[in-house]
């Protein structure tokens, strides 16, 4: 059936092939025959994802706010919102917080996940049970984990402050103090996500042939050296895919921050692009302004995804 | 296993000792991390079962004792959440089925049948997985509220349906939204599975003259049962746990059609602060459906996560 399609495609229009034959070939091709299968989902998804993105950009070019519907007349469309957003301190602050979150969260999750994966891969007993426990936070909603951590961070009775005071330190205002609130939240998110990176690394580790390890051992390399020099470099692919997922998550993280306070404004010093965008849109009704922030966010996310997809494509692993 | 002995000369025994020490170190680390991952859950459960007085007096990790024990928090939280549980399941189950079916179809069309230009479509699906939903929130709100107010169009019909009220129609846009944005991830999950199947399976059927749709129904659907399990579990957990779309499309946590995740950040809050006994009870009740699924199907969940990403 493949051949039919190629034949159809290579026939140039100038050649006088009976159009009915051509049509029949085309209708019989796998492309057309399989089109209901991929076409319908693609249409639904395409309208939602790409239609939505386009609509968002269109709104960002207007000045829409409040209850008046966006005015799409050509005279009204400009990039004014984009300069306005870039010039606002709140946006710059949120971007900075977001980058801090992205870098620290991704790095620590990767390192901790790799450590846990190597630990579990040492032939621990009940390793599948241990893995299930480590991954458990990932099965919970961010709304739920935010409540659990709100209690952990509690000033008077939270577990963290009980531990801190037991060591003779002053109790810490984990999410009330703007200079450490972001750190506290990153800590909680690492708690939730390091099980995920562990699972990704564990799959990578277990797909490696055992004999490499044996060979290194015969050569007299220590366990630590074997991991650092031989095993970990081979986990590059796991690292890249986990890092992309974590970075994109860090960009769009909203739920955890919202659910900590139950308000549009996250704890002081932890405002990121996602929370800023939702607040501008649904609290203040500044639709065009919020759509502009969302567009910037989308560009940042594409900046992470595009190189990744290109890398995957080049590797032939798409 | 190993007894601690004072330093002796290097011999075989001390080497064995060394290995054992490393082992013990590994187990200590494993247990420490089990503590790290379970501590927030443990404090939550224990707090849920304590009276306010016991919450203030005891450390959060300790179980409630005697006077300090109560079912009251859980009962109160259950009352607050019972309607929301129905809403969440009413929303999540059809949304999961829809996106899983579409995902399987799309993956079949993009994998088992070969045609040129598949890669371009595949990349469009892949971008859909990673899209930050903030980039479509304003359009979504405008579309479902102003351009195509499906919820209010369906409200009269819903009133006549058994077990449903008119306000449940507000969940329909949410279901459709979840289906549409769930398709990319489901497609990629199924694709990874279909790629692992031998191509001879489909080739043989083609030579026998089976049509594309017949191959799907007779061959691909039956053999993808295990993958349906994986994707269903993964996707249900995602949709049930999701917050942002519900937050955008449902007007508030005090509306009768609110889902569980929407109500939870407000349960047990009052002017005097948060009642953590109630809040923790509600958090646990909210987590129960996904916890049960996770404990029962941990392997499938991990598989979905590995292939699909967070």
Automatic annotation (TrEMBL), chain A:
Transmembrane stretches, start-end: 37-59, 99-120, 132-152, 180-203, 239-260, 287-311
ABC transmembrane type-1 domain segment(s): 95-306
One Pfam family named in its UniProt record: BPD_transp_1
Domain of life: Archaea
Gene3D superfamilies recorded: MetI-like
UniProt topology in membrane: Multi-pass membrane protein
Biological process terms in GO annotation: transmembrane transport
The entry's keywords: Cell membrane, Membrane, Transmembrane, Transmembrane helix, Transport
CDD domains cross-referenced by the UniProt entry: TM_PBP2
Major localisation: membrane
Location of the protein in the cell: Cell membrane
Cellular component, GO annotation: plasma membrane
Similarity annotation: Belongs to the binding-protein-dependent transport system permease family.
Protein name, UniProt field: Sugar ABC transporter permease
Organism: Haloarcula pellucida
Organism ancestry: Archaea, Methanobacteriati, Methanobacteriota, Stenosarchaea group, Halobacteria
UniProtKB/TrEMBL annotation, chain B:
Gene Ontology CC terms, in alphabetical order: plasma membrane
Keywords: Membrane, Transmembrane, Transmembrane helix, Transport
Superkingdom per UniProt: Archaea
Example of a GO biological process term: transmembrane transport
InterPro entries: MetI-like, MetI-like_sf
Protein name from the UniProt record: ABC transporter permease
Record membrane topology: Multi-pass membrane protein
TM stretches of this protein: 21-41, 84-108, 120-144, 171-194, 215-237, 276-297
Protein family per UniProt: Belongs to the binding-protein-dependent transport system permease family.
Subcellular location: Cell membrane; Membrane
Source organism (scientific name): Haloarcula pellucida
A Pfam family it matches: BPD_transp_1
Domain ABC transmembrane type-1: 85-297
């Amino acid at each position: 059936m493949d051949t039919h399609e190629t034949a159809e495609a290579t026939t140039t229009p100038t050649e006088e092939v009976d159009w009915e034959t051509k049509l029949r070939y085309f209708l019989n091709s796998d492309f057309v025959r399989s089109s209901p299968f991929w076409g319908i989902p693609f249409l639904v998804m395409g309208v939602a994802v790409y239609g939505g993105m386009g609509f968002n950009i269109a709104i960002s070019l207007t000045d829409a706010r409040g209850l008046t519907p966006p005015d799409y007349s050509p005279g009204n469309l400009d990039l004014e919102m984009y300069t306005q957003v870039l010039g606002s301190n709140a946006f710059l602050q949120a971007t900075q917080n977001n980058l801090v979150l992205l870098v620290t969260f991704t790095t620590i999750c990767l390192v901790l996940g790799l450590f846990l994966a190597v630990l579990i891969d040492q032939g621990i007993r009940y390793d599948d049970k241990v893995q299930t426990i480590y991954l458990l936070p990932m099965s919970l909603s961010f709304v739920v984990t935010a409540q659990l951590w709100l209690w952990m961070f509690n000033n008077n009775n939270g577990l963290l402050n009980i531990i801190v005071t037991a060591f003779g330190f002053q109790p810490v205002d984990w999410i009330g103090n703007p200079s450490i609130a972001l750190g506290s939240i990153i800590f909680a998110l690492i708690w939730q996500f390091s099980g995920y990176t562990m699972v990704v690394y564990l799959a990578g580790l277990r797909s490696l042939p055992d004999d490499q390890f044996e060979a290194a051992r015969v050569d007299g390399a220590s366990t630590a050296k074997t991991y650092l020099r031989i095993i970990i470099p081979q986990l590059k692919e796991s690292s890249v895919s986990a890092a992309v997922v974590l970075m994109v998550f860090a960009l769009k993280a909203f739920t955890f921050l919202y659910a900590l306070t139950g308000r549009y404004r996250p704890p002081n010093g932890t405002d990121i692009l996602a929370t800023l965008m939702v607040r501008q849109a649904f609290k203040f009704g500044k639709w065009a302004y919020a759509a502009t922030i969302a567009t910037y966010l989308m560009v940042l996310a594409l900046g992470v995804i595009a190189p990744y997809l290109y890398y995957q494509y080049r590797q032939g692993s798409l | 296993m190993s007894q601690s002995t004072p330093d002796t000369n290097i011999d075989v025994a001390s080497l064995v000792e060394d290995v054992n020490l490393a082992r013990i170190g590994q187990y200590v680390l494993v247990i420490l991390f089990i503590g790290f991952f379970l501590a927030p859950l443990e404090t939550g459960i224990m707090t849920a079962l304590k009276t306010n007085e016991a919450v203030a007096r005891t450390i959060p990790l300790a179980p409630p004792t005697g006077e300090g024990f109560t079912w009251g928090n859980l009962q109160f939280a259950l009352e607050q959440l019972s309607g929301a549980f129905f809403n969440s399941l009413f929303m999540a189950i059809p949304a999961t089925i829809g996106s899983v079916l579409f995902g399987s179809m799309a993956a079949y069309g993009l994998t088992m049948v070969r045609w040129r230009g598949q890669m371009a479509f595949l990349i469009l699906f892949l971008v859909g997985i990673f899209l930050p939903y903030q980039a479509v929130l304003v359009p979504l709100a405008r579309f479902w509220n102003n351009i195509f107010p499906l919820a209010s169009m369906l409200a009269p019909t819903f009133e006549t349906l058994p077990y449903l009220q008119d306000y449940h129609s507000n969940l329909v846009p949410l279901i459709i939204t979840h289906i549409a944005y769930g398709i990319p991830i489901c497609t990629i999950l199924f694709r990874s599975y279909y790629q692992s199947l031998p191509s001879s399976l489909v080739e043989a059927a083609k030579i026998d003259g089976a049509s594309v749709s017949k191959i799907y129904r007779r061959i691909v659907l039956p053999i993808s049962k295990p993958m349906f399990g994986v994707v269903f579990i993964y996707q249900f957990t995602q949709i049930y746990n999701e917050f942002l779309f519900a937050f955008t499309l449902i007007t508030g946590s005090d509306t009768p059609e609110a889902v569980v995740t929407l109500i939870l950040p407000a349960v047990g809050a009052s002017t005097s602060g948060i009642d953590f006994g109630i809040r923790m009870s509600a958090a646990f009740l909210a987590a129960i459906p996904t916890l049960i699924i996770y404990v029962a199907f941990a392997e499938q969940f991990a598989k979905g996560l590995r292939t699909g990403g967070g």
